[in-house]
Design goal:
The complex is a heterodimer of chains A (115) and B (111).
Chain A (H helix, E strand, L loop, with lengths): L3 E4 L2 E4 L5 E7 L5 E7 L5 E8 L2 E5 L6 E7 L2 E6 L8 E8 L10 E2 L3 E5 L1
Parallel strand pairs in A: 2-11
Antiparallel strand pairs in A: 1-3, 3-8, 4-5, 4-9, 5-6, 7-8, 9-10, 9-11
Chain B lengths: L9 E5 L4 E6 L7 E7 L6 E7 L4 E3 L3 E6 L4 E6 L8 E8 L5 E3 L3 E6 L1
The chains are: A mainly beta (115), B mainly beta (111).
Chain lengths: 115, 111
Amino acid sequence: DTAVSQTPKYLVTQMGNDKSIKCEQNLGHDTMYWYKQDSKKFLKIMFSYNNKELIINETVPNRFSPKSPDKAHLNLHINSLELGDSAVYFCASSQGFGGSYNEQFFGPGTRLTVL
Amino acid sequence: GESVGLHLPTLSVQEGDNSIINCAYSNSASDYFIWYKQESGKGPQFIIDIRSNMDKRQGQRVTVLLNKTVKHLSLQIAATQPGDSAVYFCAEYSGYSTLTFGKGTMLLVSP
């Protein structure tokens, strides 16, 4: 069974469109994250949610809106897509929040290409 | 048109060699340091971590060394195998569940 899954794996769309990426984890974790990996492989945190509450928002444009309907899901909706949004987006999850480090488990990624 | 390469630091080794991947970190307040492996088309995968009050930690075929004086972290892989070929990232953790990743090093293992 896949621990952290994302759909779709590939997403090709036109500038200006709105799209969503879904993430689900079956690890029973209570913290979930979205990361963006650019073309140079640089990986940066975007958001983290703990028990469906937004904890971290790392100066991401408000065109990006995460939504956590329950602890096992964290979806990412992107409005008015721009060329610079092209990247690989990774979802991750961990047990617990803050304090000592809790291993983060990453999904397989969604490659978004904006034309 | 001209293609632009990834320009990641790359370490090329022969199968069976020992590999050492280095990382410089910036935040002296970081509590943990973690190494992740990312294979092509996959998400990062945890390899090993080390707490800031330690200077060495060993796992299966991997050893992480931490030098806080110069803010340097290294990952040693013994008897490197073709399956070790991947991009390796170091990451710092300083609370609030935030990981700050380094730039990544590509390891290429030739049979």
